[in-house]
Amino acid sequence: MRIGQGIDVHVFGPGDHVMLGGVAVPHTHGLVAHSDGDVVIHALCDALLGALALGDIGIHFPPSDPRWKDVSSRHFLLHCAALVSERGYALANADVTIVCERPKIAPHVEAMRRNLATDLGCAIGDVSVKATTSEKLGFTGRGEGIAAFAVVLLQRSRAPTTVAPDDPVLRELVTRAELDPQS
User: Fold this and answer.
1) HSE of 47 in the Cβ direction (CA atoms, 13 Å)?
2) Which domains does the chain have, with CATH numbers?
């Protein structure tokens, strides 16, 4: 099993909605970002990439690259989900916390969970999205921006592919090597 955590923040700017978990949430502001600024998906991507020891979202989708300008962050999540699968893992669960004073998140949580579960290829029950305020403290408390934190647990999805030798000691070593993500 592998665990990863991610965080993302964006400042509010001009606009009439924020993208959160692939859902356009109506708001008095938008987000200043190179892509769509979806802090939920960006934090989740960083958690997935961290669990795989593959760096962060900026390495895979640099903000300096014009290809990613205004792109839906769901594209990034699909890429990360493919990396998880390619490396022989599956999502056990994901837990995301959004931190903001506004907009209100609760009415949109189920739609976010559906989007994330769809893109990750898992059951909706494997994805948690919740929100909290920062009690008027810090940049989120002052209404200057929004943050998201994500934690994921990945589990091996493939059976070992090497035939284990008859010797019990060698069999144990082969089994360990096949479970080692570096192998």
Assistant:
1) 28
2) 2-158 (3.30.1330.50)
